[in-house]
Design a protein that fits this description.
Layout (H helix, E strand, L loop, with lengths): L11 E5 L2 E5 L6 H12 L8 E5 L5 H4 L2 H8 L2 E5 H11 L2 H14 L24 E3 L4 E3 L4 E6 L8 E5 L4 E5 L21 H13 L5 E4 L5 E2 L1 H23 L6 H5 L16 H20 L3 E6 L2 E6 L3
Parallel strand pairs: 2-3, 3-4, 4-5, 9-10
Antiparallel strand pairs: 1-2, 6-7, 7-8, 8-9, 10-11, 12-13
Helix pairs in contact: 6-7
Length: about 325
């Protein structure tokens, strides 16, 4: 995906009783469609043989091409109902979403500016309703065995993983990545929601599958889901300690706290990040603060239109 910092998204092809299922599909742009068709051709499969498109979550690099596949080859779209609603609310008019995000960040002590740094490109997706809503525990039949749906909120409210129980393969979307850590942030419209708490609970849920192979949406497939889940849990424990240290004893906004933290695996300063990544950093900081607040470890009050967090009693 030209212009995406991650470079590409993995699309997985699985044989169904009649045709094929595709897990995730990239942006709706010509080079992505061409790459998909070339990848299918290497296995002797044509685009028209895709019967189902299963989307792990609503983000455009996973959902973007689904609308075109529904319209052009008659594929059936499957995704969690929560993310289907979020896609309609957040992607139908991204100008409104962009404005709401800017207002949300201002309430959290961070000015995004007007450079479009957190504005997505609407041409890279089209909003389409799923023909089948997937819920936790549902089964999608394959030619051999089936996929079990695991609802794993956190990276998005309706994120799902898919477990091939026959082959012990977990298609993890963006829920588990290696070596990067999935983004878990609190954005506009998610006030008073513990996104990080949901994500950590979902990690423990997929850990219990003990899947032999994890097939993520970015990066190479890897072994040992237990190892990677434990690493991610430890990472968030470490980040929580840093957030609490940056919070100090006085009331502070999420923007102020984010500016004190190291970012990325290279431990870059907040000022070294571009506007796009600064916004994501603030959203992740809010998620940590809200997780602390859900456990009564910090309090939150509003002063002059800015949300301020303060250390409380454990």
């Amino acid at each position: 995906m030209t212009g995406n910092p991650l470079g590409y998204v993995n699309a997985y092809l699985l044989r169904e009783p009649d045709g094929y299922a595709l897990i995730d599909c990239g942006w709706d742009v010509p080079d992505v469609l061409a790459a998909l068709e070339a990848g299918l051709a290497r296995y002797g499969v044509q685009l028209e043989e895709i019967r189902d498109v299963i989307v792990t979550h609503f983000h455009p690099d996973h959902y973007g091409l689904a609308g075109r596949l529904v319209r052009t080859v008659g594929a059936r779209l499957m995704m969690h109902d929560i993310d289907a609603r979020v896609a309609y609310d957040r992607l139908s008019d991204f100008t409104i979403t962009f404005r709401e995000n800017a207002q949300w960040f201002a309430r959290n002590g961070y000015a995004t500016g007007n450079d479009g740094s957190i504005k997505d490109e609407p041409a890279r997706y089209s909003v389409v309703a799923p023909q089948r809503a997937l819920n936790d525990g549902d089964e999608v039949p394959l030619a051999k065995g089936s996929l079990r749906v695991l609802w794993t909120p956190g990276h998005s409210p309706g994120h799902i993983c898919l477990l091939d129980t026959t082959n012990s393969v977990l298609f993890s979307g963006d829920h588990i990545l290696d070596p990067i850590t999935p983004h878990v942030g609190t954005w506009s419209g998610q006030d008073d929601q513990d996104q990080l708490g949901a994500f950590l609970a979902s990690l423990r849920k997929v850990r219990a599958t003990r899947a032999g192979i994890v097939a993520p949406a970015h990066g190479r497939p890897f072994n040992d889901v237990t190892r990677r889940v434990d690493e991610l849990l430890a990472h968030h424990d470490e980040r929580e300690l840093l957030v609490r240290e940056a919070l100090g004893s006085g009331p502070s906004s999420a923007g102020t706290i984010a500016a004190k933290l190291p970012w990325t695996r290279r431990h870059r300063t907040f000022a070294e990040l571009g506007g796009f990544h600064q916004a994501f950093a603030v959203a992740e900081t809010i998620a940590h603060l809200e997780h602390l607040r859900a456990r009564n470890m910090v309090t939150r009050n509003e002063r002059d239109g800015v949300l301020l967090y303060e250390s409380g009693s454990e």
